[in-house]
Amino acid sequence: MRRRSSQLGVAALVLLFAAPAWADWYESKKDERSGVTVGFALGGAVVKGLGDFKNVGGLGPTASLRIGTVAGPKLLWLFTIDNANYLIEDQFTEKVTTNQSVSVTVGGQYYVRDALWGRLGIGPGWFLRRANEGDSPEETHGGFGFSSGVGVDVWFRKKWVINLEVVFTASIVSGGLVSHGGLMMALTRY
User: Fold this and answer.
1) Which of 144, 70, 77 is nearest to 104 (CA)?
2) Weakly modelled stretches of the chain, pLDDT under 50
3) Tell me, what's the pLDDT at 179?
4) What secondary structure letter does DSSP report for 68?
């Protein structure tokens, strides 16, 4: 226990002394955000349904594509496509099916601190259920979608940024709601 607390103390001191230097460095770089922004993120997600979709759920990969413009030093306007897949294996036939939660949103990303931001968007959302892998969707449920997220820029080089983010997306469709939330790593160019 004593060793653990001393390790935490050392980590706190490193952060205490390194954070101001990092903040000064980042402050000089954030002015390089301008023009068109394009980004791509990958990660893992949990998909969960409510209402008529209460049996929908699973773990799987998630991806996001973003295209937008820099509106100012702290604000981006974005068009975003978010997708989460999860696999289901039929216990009797052992066939694997991939179901999807998709949203296409328009919104903004606002930097609340130099490298810490939040994002909100609204638009259409869908849940696609397949009978067999590779088939076209057996059921497509569309409705109102929204996307939200928080993230932190962890690396910045010229106009390139790598960030870590937590994303939550939901599609409100007839009969219920299908949502996914996950942890993602993104590469963005400003």
Assistant:
1) 144
2) 16, 18-19, 21-22
3) 93
4) E
Instruction: Read off the tokens for 142.
Output: 């569309």
Per-residue pLDDT at 56: 86
Residue 75 tokens read as 């604000």
Domain boundaries, given as residue ranges, for the chain: 1-30, 34-189
* Percentage above 90 pLDDT, the chain: 54
What's the whole-model pTM score?
0.79
- Number of residues written out for the chain: 190
Q: What span, in angstroms and rounded, lies between the C-alpha atoms of 129 and 43?
A: 21
Structure tokens at 111: 């930097």
Count of CA atoms in the C-beta half-sphere (13 A) of 35: 8
Give one DSSP letter per residue of 157-175, joined into a string. ETTEEEEEEEEEEEEEETT
Q: Which two tokens stand for residue 77?
A: 């306007």
Fill in the DSSP letter of residue 137. Answer: P
| Planar angle of CA 171, 78, 183, nearest 5 degrees | 60
CATH number of 34-189: 2.40.160.20
The pLDDT value given to residue 152: 93
Q: Reduced to 3 DSSP states, what percent helix, strand and coil does the chain have, rounded to the nearest 5?
A: 15, 65, 20
